[in-house]
Amino acid sequence: MDGLLTPWGIDERAERLYRALLRRPGSSRHDLADLLGWAGEAEVDRAAHPLLAARLVREAAGSYVALAPETAVGRLLDREESRLQRRLREVVDARSTVGDFLLDHAAGQGRPRAEEALAALDPDRALGALAELAATTTGPVRVHCAPDWLAAADERVGQLLGRLLAGRTVRVVYPVAVLDDDAQLDRLRRQARRGGAARVAAAVDRSFLVFGDAGAVMPAAPGTDGHLLVRTPALVATLRDLFDVAWHHASPLPTPVQGRPADARDSALLELLALGAKDETVARRLGVSLRTVRRRTAQLMHELGATTRFQAGREASRRGLV
């Protein structure tokens, strides 16, 4: 039977050793061998090898010390989550080629091109497609807003979408760059107070908008103003699932720090670290110097047992500190 750590190459014997180190800290290699019923210290060393490679334990005083599972195992989970997100993006890219093959196959069979399933739109037609999808679909609207859409957004488009989506459940994932624009951040907070739902993620690398399970709109290619209207169920479902993964890992908009007590400033700092915000952005949002941000960040990372700023933010979230 596979152990809990099998996905990371940790076999059952290594996991037994890790659990023993957690339960009996300070045990010698000889004591560990006796406890586990192994022939000798050499077996302990062999079992410890994958644990050392995964940074679940470290060597100390001729034996081994287990690192705190909330940090060590949490790091493995963060790494696996990042890998899964990359893989999901690869799947989306692969699925996007299916539409081209379907169109080629339809042309070869003498059937009409599947324009309804996957259609190219110029900017004016894209607005019309949004209006049609808003009127003919049901369910939540998911907006994955990468920097390209964030930079191109204007008041006219924002007002139009506001009218089209009135009464719909709308969820939006924004890039961390929104934290650098005070006016935009204030606007997003006002929308949240009116019932909109917005989160911020460190990496938002592609834009798309999904209407329920029936249709989606996304850029045709990077650096162009053309768009694709997607109605192929498999592609729509993939975009929906990609958004849901991003939403799960994104963080709520940070709350304003004015008037918050000193300990709440640390919570705000950790919130921003979890989002992957730059030092300059953190300093401006907190109203403190860059030196203060870097000094307090180093202190918090040490207190949380984190090796990176992002990990400190995630660890604080895991502990309920933010």
Automatic annotation (TrEMBL):
Residues 259-316 form the HTH luxR-type domain. It comes from the Bacteria. GO terms for biological process: regulation of DNA-templated transcription. InterPro entries: Sig_transdc_resp-reg_C-effctor, TrmB-like, Tscrpt_reg_LuxR_C, WH-like_DNA-bd_sf. GO terms for molecular function: DNA binding. This is HTH luxR-type domain-containing protein. It comes from Vallicoccus soli. The lineage of its organism: Bacteria, Bacillati, Actinomycetota, Actinomycetes, Motilibacterales.
